[in-house]
């Protein structure tokens, strides 16, 4: 091996650019593993950030996926954002039972309408709401100080490329990492909300533990987008960082088992786990098989477990008011910054602040947080893909009713109706959020 490392054939595999401490890198890493797609990893160091992330991807976030393509100047096509990456891979590497198990064999979004809607709702909850817990348990008041050295090495190692002097990496990482503490207020993480966030975390772990007593994955026996989305926060911040990681391992070991299973470690029902059949002659995959002794209720083709509904109810009960106000604020912003002839409008990531409430054990607290426009795009994706046809809407409303009753159904429908009346769609172009006017009668 030379001083510059072993050379690889140019364009031989996908390259995932990111880090071990990145929520969304973990999401893509798990997805690619479950697709059984070979890939290499590249640390998002300062030099890589400048040349690849900013230069090639024209972005300021990780992960970035480099796709071998000789027609491109660098020999790679570049995609940023987990949702765009997953969409691309699902299209170019369609699932087939002949490809293996898991997401190599079946689509990441279930084909039946209710389960499809549920999986995409869980992706929205993961990207927009669970990430608050991830941020709190890494950077929150009194938490960061307990794991500061661990995080400093993480950030310093990635920023430098991992091969610098230990003390230099610690110093660099402390500077880089401390910037993220400033993002806490944008997520509504303050000394006021911290006690409630902690109680909510323990409640979530309890609900997930009850679920994983019966099922290996969130929607049942098969991995879906719900798991891939949730694993980002759990495999990275919550399961890996010292403080929340200890809580999960000591208080909710079944959640830790799910983390390892979803990340393709050697756990029952993981991608590569096998056993001998009853004759001890043939190897069979444990993936897709029900748990022994758990006796979970049998699921219909388009059902979701009752224990999952409780998780969804807990999360949506807090997040739906935030989503509703975020959509209203987004349409107000678009209205103020467009005219009758405006067809396109680039949207900022944040548009001011709004009030939100948190609840736990009879306690209610109120705080400010940033209005995060990214949620409007997530909402747009859910309705575009799983809430358009009459069959889809009926199935989705049925699922929402089982989660939170007619009040939740009504809130959701009102969000959709108000969004439709506004006459705009939010999408993504060249790593920017774009609002596009819908000509004629607005359609979702």
UniProtKB/TrEMBL annotation:
Can you give the residue ranges of the Glutathione S-transferase C-terminal domain?
198-263
Q: Which parts of the sequence belong to the GST N-terminal domain?
A: 16-96
Q: Which InterPro entries match?
A: Glutathione-S-Trfase_C_sf, Glutathione_S-Trfase_N, GST_C, Thioredoxin-like_sf
Q: Could you tell me the superkingdom of the organism this chain comes from?
A: Eukaryota
Recorded protein name is Uncharacterized protein
């Amino acid at each position: 091996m030379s001083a510059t490392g072993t050379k690889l054939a140019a364009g031989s595999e996908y390259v995932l650019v990111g880090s071990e401490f990145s929520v969304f890198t973990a999401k893509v890493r798990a997805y690619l593993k479950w697709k059984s797609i070979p890939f290499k990893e590249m640390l998002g160091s300062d030099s890589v950030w400048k040349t690849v992330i900013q230069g090639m991807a024209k972005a300021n976030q990780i992960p970035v996926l480099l796709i071998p393509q000789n027609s491109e100047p660098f020999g790679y096509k570049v995609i940023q954002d987990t949702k765009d990456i997953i969409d691309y891979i699902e299209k170019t590497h369609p699932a087939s039972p002949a490809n293996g198990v898991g997401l190599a064999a079946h689509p990441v979004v279930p084909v039946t309408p209710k389960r499809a809607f549920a999986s995409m709702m869980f992706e929205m909850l993961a990207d927009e709401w669970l990430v608050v817990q991830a941020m709190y348990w890494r950077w929150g008041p009194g938490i960061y100080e307990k794991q500061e050295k661990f995080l400093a090495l993480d950030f310093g190692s990635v920023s430098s490329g991992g091969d610098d002097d230990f003390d230099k990496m610690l110093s660099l990482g402390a500077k880089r990492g401390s910037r993220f503490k400033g993002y806490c207020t944008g997520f509504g993480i303050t000394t006021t909300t911290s006690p409630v966030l902690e109680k909510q975390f323990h409640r979530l772990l309890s609900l997930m533990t009850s679920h994983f007593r019966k099922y290996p994955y969130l929607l049942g026996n098969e991995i879906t987008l719900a798991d891939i989305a949730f694993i980002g926060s759990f495999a990275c911040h919550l399961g890996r960082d010292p403080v929340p990681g200890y809580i999960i391992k000591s208080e909710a070991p079944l959640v830790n088992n799910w983390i390892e299973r979803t990340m393709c470690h050697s756990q029952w029902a993981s991608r590569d786990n096998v056993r001998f059949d009853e004759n001890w002659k043939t190897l069979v995959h444990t993936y897709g098989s029900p748990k022994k002794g758990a006796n979970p209720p049998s699921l219909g083709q388009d059902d979701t477990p009752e224990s999952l509904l409780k998780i969804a109810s807990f999360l949506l009960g807090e997040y739906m008011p935030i989503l509703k106000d975020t959509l209203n604020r987004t349409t107000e912003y678009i209205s103020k910054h467009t005219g009758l002839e405006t067809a396109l409008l680039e949207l900022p990531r944040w548009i001011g602040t709004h009030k939100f409430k948190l609840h736990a054990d009879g306690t209610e607290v109120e705080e400010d947080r940033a209005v995060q426009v990214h949620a409007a795009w997530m909402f747009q994706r859910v309705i575009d893909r799983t809430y358009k046809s009459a069959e889809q809407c009926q199935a989705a409303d049925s699922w929402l009713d089982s989660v939170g009753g007619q009040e939740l159904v009504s809130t959701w429908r009102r969000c959709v109706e108000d969004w439709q009346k506004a006459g705009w769609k939010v999408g993504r172009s060249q790593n920017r959020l774009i609002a596009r006017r819908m000509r004629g009668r607005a359609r979702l």
